[in-house]
């Protein structure tokens, strides 16, 4: 069967969610002008913003076969995350019986390559299909083309829920270290809620700088902002120095948007490091006080207790004692989803009063 290939940025055929920088080259999370500005004081964030974590394309097609051509910035190079999780893509299809998007396939490609083709979709019929393509988590994608059967159609598909969520955080937020992109907890929540989520997780670099708040605030009409930076900014005094200004800067642009401030999850390595336990508990108390102070001022800011995410067997939830595996990421998705839904529902009720 002859195949035709269409660039993923072709708006006549795809709807891309999770990025405001699609006019820039590739699939980036922050605008080039913001990356250039941020590079002056945090070069790691400037680079990591070129990684496509949380970006997804939605489309409909009746093609029984779906191929993909991908060009990424570099070869896989992480020693605690699979090449598929770092640089690969995966495909979800809407299942009417389950009434949700379900996993279909992933690009189990040769990790020594920066350019590859993959037969990603295999279906028995030419029935209509609603699909989500999740982009790489820890790598930048330069170009992506989707191939379908020559006589098939391909049109954009859209989220059913118009709520927009923005999350800022660490390597855990970015996706370290799940096995494939669809297992990232923000991608899981995006499917469950059928909504757009902007992922601003920056590995080892979430220090709550004022300029980051300004760049993230470019996302228009957000319904919720989540700050999950303790694991980075809370290793020293930067959380205390920067967080309040970070919040106030964001609120200049979005004064009425509810904010969730999360403390970090339990790390297995905490068991063997009393200093880490002491610091984690200190910042949990400090974050709770920050939230309480804001609430007493009438602000709609909420606390998410990350220490309660893993109910049992918390040492089994990570790859390396810190970064969630797929099991840990699913537990995060469940816990965060519950809090997100609670805050959004409360905010919607308050709007009606």
Tell me what you see in this structure:
InterPro entries: Ester_Hydrolysis_Enzymes, GxDLY, SGNH_hydro, SGNH_hydro_sf. One of its GO terms (molecular function) is phosphatidylcholine lysophospholipase activity. This is SGNH hydrolase-type esterase domain-containing protein. This protein has 353 residues and is of the alpha/beta class. It folds into 2 domains: 3-156, Sandwich (Jelly Rolls); 164-352, SGNH hydrolase (Rossmann fold). 31% of the residues lie in helices and 24% in strands. It has helices spanning 32-39, 43-48, 83-87, 171-174, 185-193, 210-216, 230-233, 238-253, 274-296, 326-352, and strands at 3-7, 15-17, 56-61, 65-72, 90-95, 100-106, 115-122, 129-134, 141-149, 154-156, 164-169, 196-201, 224-228, 259-262, 301-304. The strands form 3 sheets. Strands 2, 3, 5, 6, 8 and 10 form a 6-stranded antiparallel β-sheet that branches. Strand 14, helix 9 (274-296) and strand 15 form a beta-alpha-beta unit. The N and C termini lie far apart (58 Å). The mean pLDDT is 97.
